[in-house]
Amino acid sequence: MRIYTRTGDTGQTGVIGGRVDKDDARVEAYGTTDELNCFVGQAIGFLDPERDADLMADLLEIQHEIFDCGSDLALLKQELLPYKVTAEMVDRLEAWIDKYDAETPDIKRFILPGGSQASSALHVCRTVCRRAERRVVTLARTQPINEEVRRYLNRLSDLFFTVARTANHRAGVGDIEYVRSAEVFRRKS
């Protein structure tokens, strides 16, 4: 099998159900999820395999689900295939957020990206995830999408924030607080 096909040389690419321009909002949306997936893989590489085995397994599952997001976003018409991203996947992300948040100290101020290498990489994942969500919002203004993808990406960015803090905590590295902020968060209940 050849990797190159030459079919994109004219500035179009194939999606599920047709061809679109390479700068189409649909391609921007699923392309950004692909970029996010790369950064998640990089972040996994910065985690400690013994200490963070659970986190690594969850992030690997997320990589598969980000690929599912891209697949749903590449679908021109929902009638062609069933959507892959579901409300249950969003619910599970919320459960993981709660689980990992319980490991971390109370947050009082905004947190700057940084600390350990793993945490820094997970904060990059958070910001790329937010950009992917924005691209999906743009796409949804003009074309049909699986609404669960938008919800999933919204919750996923919250998970990345939480696991970035978890990675720091497990590594014995404190979060970097934004010192020019007043205390803006209440204690966990």
Automatic annotation (TrEMBL):
Keyword ATP-binding: yes
Record keywords, A-Z: ATP-binding, Cobalamin biosynthesis, Nucleotide-binding, Transferase
Catalytic activity: 2 cob(II)yrinate a,c diamide + reduced [electron-transfer flavoprotein] + 2 ATP = 2 adenosylcob(III)yrinate a,c-diamide + 2 triphosphate + oxidized [electron-transfer flavoprotein] + 3 H(+); 2 cob(II)alamin + reduced [electron-transfer flavoprotein] + 2 ATP = 2 adenosylcob(III)alamin + 2 triphosphate + oxidized [electron-transfer flavoprotein] + 3 H(+)
Gene3D superfamilies: Cobalamin adenosyltransferase-like
Residues covered by the Cobalamin adenosyltransferase-like domain: 3-167
InterPro entries xref list: CblAdoTrfase-like, CblAdoTrfase-like_sf, PduO-typ
Name of the top EC class for this enzyme: transferase
Highest rank taxon of the organism: Bacteria
GO terms for MF: corrinoid adenosyltransferase activity
EC number(s) per entry: 2.5.1.17
Pathway given in the UniProt record: Cofactor biosynthesis; adenosylcobalamin biosynthesis; adenosylcobalamin from cob(II)yrinate a,c-diamide: step 2/7
Family classification: Belongs to the Cob(I)alamin adenosyltransferase family.
Name this protein carries in UniProt: Corrinoid adenosyltransferase
